[in-house]
Amino acid sequence: MAYSSITIISVPYHVGMYGERVGEGPLRLLRHGLDQQVAKIAPTHYSDISHVDDFEGEIGKTFEVIRRVSKAVSQAVAANSFPLILAGNCNASVAAAAGLSSSHPDLGVIWLDAHDDLETPSTHENGYLDGMAASIMTGSSWHKLASTVPGHVPLALKNVVYGGLRVVASDQQRVIQEAGVDAVWGSTTKMVDFEAELCALLQRRKLGSAHVHLDLDVLDESLGRVNEYPSAGGFLAEDLKKVMAMIPTQVQPTSLVICGFNPRLEGGNTIARLAVQAARCFVSNLEKNGHLVPKFGN
């Protein structure tokens, strides 16, 4: 069934801290008019995640954010409204998958990111909690805390399709290969047609319903420093636009997370403009492909 509206879920947190580093990303995207662009296409509602200062440490705060976003996603879907989640951290996709588990039990995930986010506490070296988002989502780490997230059911890793990967440790590459995970890899030595390769992959996989995860560090570092982990070999501006337009032609998108953007770094306004354009393009193509049938009030 097609969605009839959009719900923008604003999650301006970095490991539970409001407006810090990538936590400022959602605020900058809204200041650049992302919500106004979306509202031109469909009725747009808002859901804000309140502060989590009373919870313990980065880990406790992070998981409380995940719990709250999961509930917000479930509520949006129950109202037949497409969840568009503007988040600091990639862990918002853990929440999205949990919030969708009842309505979409066979959920696929399209993960657009320079990193696989499959690290665990046993394999991670720099302590960056958000580098473990996909491993939480697929049931490979933080099992006890993940079980406190409403709706959390581990996804099979083979249900995840990656686009733009390029900063992946050799042991993680083996995990991806051994699990039979499909990926379109970025490259610094050759031009990659991300749209064509990802389209062919999705045509073969036939995911059906799929959550879309857009970590803006999938963009090539030549466009600006999206966050503290920029890298070469990623999406150029036209790649991003083409990929976001193509995805609704190949799957039934259930939700979208846009995350991983620290606007205080070099090129922040450029990245914000590209993200707003990508969101508008994506939502427009939701409508064109029948996944969104706007119902404006009188």
Question: What does the model show?
Answer:
GO terms for molecular function: arginase activity; manganese ion binding. The protein is an alpha/beta fold. The chain has one domain: Arginase, Chain A (3-Layer(aba) Sandwich), CATH 3.40.800.10. It is 36% helix and 18% strand. Helix 7 links the parallel strand 7 and strand 8.
How far do the termini sit from each other? 23 Å
Q: What is the fold-level CATH name, i.e. the topology?
A: Arginase, Chain A
Strand content: 15-25%
- Compute the number of structural domains: 1
Topology:
Blueprint: E1 5-11, E2 13-14, E3 17-18, H1 25-31, H2 34-39, E4 44-48, H3 57-78, E5 81-87, H4 92-99, E6 108-112, H5 133-137, H6 143-146, E7 160-165, H7 170-178, E8 182-185, H8 194-205, E9 209-215, H9 237-250, E10 252-259, H10 268-288
Parallel strand pairs: 1-4, 1-5, 5-10, 6-7, 6-9, 7-8, 9-10
Antiparallel strand pairs: 2-3
Helix pairs in contact: 3-4, 8-9, 9-10
